[in-house]
Amino acid sequence: MEGLQPNPQLKELFVKGYGAKEFPSWMMNDDHELASRLPYLIKIEIWSCSECNVLPPFSQLPSLKYLKLYDMKKSMEFKESPSATLILFPSLELLELYHIAKLRELWRMDLLAKQGSSFPRLSKLYIHKCCDLASLHLPPSLSKLQINDCNKLASLKLPSSSSLSQLKIRNCSNLGSLELPSSSSLSKLEIRYCSNLESLELPSFHALSNLKIVDCPNLASFNVASLTRLQELRLRNVRAEVPRQLMLASSSLKLLYIWGIDGEISVPEEQLQHVSTLESLYISNCSFLEILRHWMGSLSSLRALAICCCPELTSLPKEIYSLKKLETLYLSGFQLTNEDRAKIARLPDVNLSTGKLADLKIRGIFYRN
Fold it and tell me: Which of 40, 51, 84, 267 has the largest CB neighbor count within 10 A?
């Protein structure tokens, strides 16, 4: 690569399996030479350059929009100019980092402190299997953020003026708390497999419509404000307090998916209007059953109901036969009595299924978890 002289009009650069310890000098020179040499470069992908630990000063490139780095095993940092006037990554829109094993922070924080307007256009950030990443400071321009398998990540700081619309966090076992600022743009939030997450702060989210929390068994401290536009809520293997508080904070919930929750999800009688908007209800592998009898009379909008693998359920609540809008009833994991079958048969608009749940998912009634 040392002898290459790329055309100044070059727009895309792919490097895979480069075995040297340093990138060629034409990529590493100071004084903004890379920026002047490749002023129109838009996309860079670096794959499996396992011996390199210093990357070229890509942040100088004026037209760079897409940067993807994969499988870098050494300690990694960017070679940057100490200039206090430089804006880092002036055009970058997407950054994807995958299996950067020894990455501890995205950028040198001393440089970011000097260049306050860095990353002015970064809208999508995806981080996967960066096992040493311990903290994350984000620019306010982000609209999508996804973090997977970063087991040392202990803190995540979102700017208060964030334009973030989608946030996904998966398998970050060291993340103990998550505090999100109020947002008028966040519409989708997903937290999965964060086994040590104990505290979650959800202030006012006026745009949040889709929320999923999966396999966070230690989540105990849960503060939530108003979620006026929340329509889809999916919860699996969390404490019963979590769905109770989320339901009380929402007023327009249409789909509720509950899996593997032990304990009663009690909703005060005077606040049962919080379940009256539900159109689809899925309950699986849960020990609580009184919820059905407690809620059933208030589920006036319910069109689809699925009950799976709840062994304590021996018969259907009688209130189920008064649900005037019910169209689909899926039952699995217990034996229907002859009396229940006879009553269901008298409901002309209800389609009873005891087969595979995939049949319902294919029709779009329930989301594939």
Answer: 267
